[in-house]
Amino acid sequence: MPCRLRKITVYETKSRFYIIGCDSTGSRYNVLKIDRVDPKALITGEPEYDYTREEILELLSTISDGSSGT
C-alpha cells in the first residue's frame, strides 16, 4: 500500500530543494529532490524507496554538511 504523507518539509541548498514527507506515524519517509542548477530545466529525482527516520536524519546531516562548505 502506498505511503500517505501527513507532514511535508522543504530543505534548501544552493543546488537543490529537498522535499521530505512522512506518514502519520513518522516511521516512513519519502524524498523528492529538485535540481536548481539550470533555471531553464526542471530536473527531479524521487527514489523508489521508503526511508526510515534514522536514514532521513543521516541524509539531512549529509545535506547540512555539504551546504555549509559552499
UniProtKB/TrEMBL annotation:
<dbReference type="GO" id="GO:0046856">
    <property type="term" value="P:phosphatidylinositol dephosphorylation"/>
</dbReference>
<dbReference type="GO" id="GO:0043813">
    <property type="term" value="F:phosphatidylinositol-3,5-bisphosphate 5-phosphatase activity"/>
</dbReference>
<keyword id="KW-0378">Hydrolase</keyword>
<protein>
    <submittedName>
        <fullName>Uncharacterized protein</fullName>
    </submittedName>
</protein>
<dbReference type="InterPro" id="IPR043573">
    <property type="entry name" value="Fig4-like"/>
</dbReference>
